[in-house]
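Bench log. Compound arrived from synthesis this morning; before running ITC I wanted a structural hypothesis for how zinc ion sits in the protein. Inputs:
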Amino acid sequence: MLTDYHVHLRPDDYADPATAAERAFTAENAERYRTVASERGIDELGVSEHIYRFAQALDVWRHPFWREQAVDDLDAYSAFVRDETDLRLGIEADFVVGAEDRMATLLEAHDWDYVVGSVHFVRDEAVDHEDYDVWESARDPDAVWRRYFTLLGEAARSGMFDILAHPDLVKMWGERRPRPDGDLRRFYDLAMEGIAESGIAVEVSTAGLRKPVGEIYPARPFLEMCLDAGSPIALSSDAHVPDQLGYGYEQAMELLDDLGVRELSVFERRTRRMEPIG
Ligand SMILES: [Zn+2]
Ligand SMILES: [Zn+2]
């Protein structure tokens, strides 16, 4: 069985965020995703909209980017997915240091099938967004990577999330930004204890193939370390439009097969089971 769980119905580039939800959260749009997924052999399909798109997220964090984005209603989104689609109901929630309790409270108020946990920000600066770019002030790539992977381990350990998203997102810009030299496992190590102890499912995301870095998240050595730690694996594309569903899955399957991964994580009401890839 193939999954695609880290999926957005709402593209990033709708010109007017205020009307985006009306266009994205419709049965017709969900059906477009379902159709493409079926064509690509993906039976387990879920959506995980960014939590910062929702007004309720401002109770958690008031970063300028969130204030600009938080226009949709979280209750309307979850009711829409449950009542008008046959998709699994997920959410992509950020790990925000100092806001763990508030985020946990918000997440607990809904009956998700799964929560995807992401580290997009290191303090107030983003690793994947040009407007709040961490690399504008950073001089030492080792310091950024150390901070990023430490946070990733804390995100896993927080217990708030079922799936750890795009685990080495910090590499997203590839050669367009500084990158530490040498064996990168010294950074991965900083996250491993949290990942191992939490039992969180580690996402293999093909989104990196569409980004400047041109690689799957996470790098193979990172994935090997997770497998050594006994982590379950989740597979997603982080699609933002139907055509990105299952993007690059052949390459992901090859990697998983090579590493002896035969099962994928499947979620229902925040309970995980393992299903053979097939
Ligand atoms: Zn993300
Ligand atoms: Zn995403």
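What the model suggests: The chain has a mean pLDDT of 96. The longest strand covers residues 42-50.
ITC booked for Thursday regardless.
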